[in-house]
Amino acid sequence: MRSKRPSKGGRDKDSRNEKGGSRRGESSRREPSAGGGSRRGDGQRGGGRDRSAKGIVLEMFSNSPDTVFTQRQMTRKLGIVDKKGRDELMVIVNTLLRENKLLLIDGDKYQLNLRVNIITGRVDLANSKYAYIVSEDTEDDVRVFREHLKYAMDGDLVKVKVLPTMQGGRSEGMVVEVLERSRTELVGLMELTKNFGFVVPDFKRLYFDVFVGERNLNGAQSGDKVLVKIIEWPKEPGKNPTGEVIRVFGPAGENEAEIHSIMAEFGLPFEFPETVEEEAEQISDKIPAGELAKRRDMRDVTTFTIDPADAKDFDDALSIQKLENGNWEIGVHIADVTHYVHPRSLLEKEAFHRATSVYLVDRTIPMLPERLSNGLCSLRPNEEKLTFSVVFEIDDNGKLYDTWYGRTITYSDRRFSYEEAQERIETGEGDFVEEINTLNNIAKKLQAKRFKNGAISFETTEVKFRLDEKGKPLSVYVKERKDAHKLIEEFMLLANKKVAEFVYGLGKGKKRPTMVYRTHGSPDPDKLSTFSIFAGKFGYKVDPDGDISEELNNLTHEIEGKPEQSVLQNLAIRTMAKAKYSTEPEGHFGLAFDHYSHFTSPIRRYPDMMAHRLLQHYLDGGTSEDKEAFEERCRHSSEMEKRAADAERASIKYKQVEFMKDTIGNQYKGIVSGVTEWGIFVEIEENKCEGMVRLSSLNDDYYELDSNNYRIIGRQSKRIISFGDEVLVEIVGANMAERTIDMELVETLKRH
């Protein structure tokens, strides 16, 4: 069927295609995505690439929903001039009739079936071909193909016409109106011709490029990473949005360009507004005498901080002293940020907006200006500081006798790095050795009790880098968590738990006072069943119907130190519900706590500031605060936390690719960590960098995906490569702009 309206064709960026950087399942929300195809496709531009003939016909009806068309009117409108085209048209029309998308009128006329629902929902781009609309108006998500998206992007709020479907078929729809755009700025690669350019978005699932005219290039050169603002949306399909370059990051692949583009991609701020900085600078560093009178004075109690060696802000400290009855008084002292940041201040507004500090590989994007985060609120050694504290009376076995909450003034006697504290634990020598070892012994008892109560012992693998002065990675290693890390963690967990329990216990039923909780639901049964199959591929048994905590903790013990530890731990964590902030006291499954809050990091987390304010309000005898207002802040904080985590992962991936760029030709042992229609993903054992072996590079046979069994099979040889196999791979490419690593398979070392 020929049409007057030429197809814009162009790139098919589905599922990051053969670039090797996407994890399986990342690219499609509900269905496995089709692989293959280059990212650039045939090089043409357009918003409606690869538009199907069926889509064009349906679009014609949708653009004139009240019009009744005869066959002749349809052929004339679509520019069809031959019999073959007319025959093709009627095949499509009859298909749309069977799908209830069209109605037959008077035996020879056709009209769009208007007996459809109109829903409102958010766009979730599955790949470059279609999106799902997630709506509270319908239980099932509605699929919308890109030619019917009206240029809606991921996260946009849209009004959608849900089309009639065959019984049992997937709901499909068409965007009627874009109600709210989540963003109008995109990061991408500038490609220039003589007088204009196109920005190819970094977001691989986006289905259009952005046209930039000569006047709006603002100095961008071909090959630069840029931030483009869309200033005009097309009024008809098949065109490109028009944009203006508002920031040039520099040549793609360079450190500053890539890190800045990651910041812009995730909407992270580059600096604080001047007015916010000025407000911070005006805060006095003097502690008024009147303030001291309102606080518990703990300056004479032995106090120290334990943090990473390169930390600049210290928002928590521990104090310890022996009581006359033989028990220990252990204080968890937290920077009193809300003493300095007042509810209606510019600092408060900015902290809420950011909601969290973001830790990229080579820099921190703080929630609060340096004047506060590294100065006034940082519990630096040999300085008096205002703190908010939870003080425990506890014995050598970790039994808790009493807890006190309130504002304090403290004095840190020593700043320890984790390595220095660990040295005292291992050698039994050095200053404050008795205090650190006492805390460590009690922490071990607290941890044992948590695990006995059902806490999950899984830990994520944290990849760290050693960088030179220009930010280039010199090495990649996996951070090892030792007793010093766990010591701090246990006392922070205890403080967070007790704060939540205290506030929860102040009321009953609907009269319980509003609090900000950190909640974590039970694992999804379907995901758990799938994970048990994955674990079985490695020879481990996980019973999804058993005691989940016990099953997962047994697995943790079995896989410790094994090559597959990282892969299985990451998969196990994915089975869990996502932790979030909420005013509902729903408990924390992973920690096995009935009530849990975040209280211990107000320098870097806005929910901790909320918890501080609420706790003090209730200590002062205040009544319950507005629950809905705090719930809205919780939702925002959870969203910003996810954005920060995504940005942090993107920066890690970029640095991994940058590091592997200098290892081309090297061979590494790895684990098959995913299988797709276009390749297998392999995680290198020694540094956890992940890349792809494309099926097209396996020259000994033609391999096909057996998705049910998480493996690929050679058509002739019946050779099998499965999820979990140990393999030897060679690095053959590292694409900095795409953040992908290409590998070739050398041999299979061990089958699972």
Automatic annotation (TrEMBL):
The kind of enzyme this is, by top-level EC class, is hydrolase
| Broad class of where this protein is predominantly found | cytoplasm
Query: Which transformation does this protein catalyse, written as a reaction?
Result: Exonucleolytic cleavage in the 3'- to 5'-direction to yield nucleoside 5'-phosphates
What region holds the S1 motif domain?
665-746
- Keyword set for this entry? Cytoplasm, Exonuclease, Hydrolase, Nuclease, RNA-binding
Write out the ranges of the annotated region (Disordered).
1-51
Q: Which Pfam families match?
A: CSD2, OB_RNB, RNB, S1
Q: Where is the composition biased (Basic and acidic residues)?
A: 9-32, 39-51
Localization terms from the record: Cytoplasm
Q: What EC number(s) does the entry state?
A: 3.1.13.1
Give the protein's biological function.
3'-5' exoribonuclease that releases 5'-nucleoside monophosphates and is involved in maturation of structured RNAs.
HAMAP family annotated for this entry?
A: RNase_R
Describe the family membership recorded for this protein in Swiss-Prot or TrEMBL.
Belongs to the RNR ribonuclease family. RNase R subfamily.
Protein name per the record: Ribonuclease R
Source organism per entry reads Pontibacter amylolyticus
Q: Which lineage ranks, top first, belong to the organism behind this chain?
A: Bacteria, Pseudomonadati, Bacteroidota, Cytophagia, Cytophagales
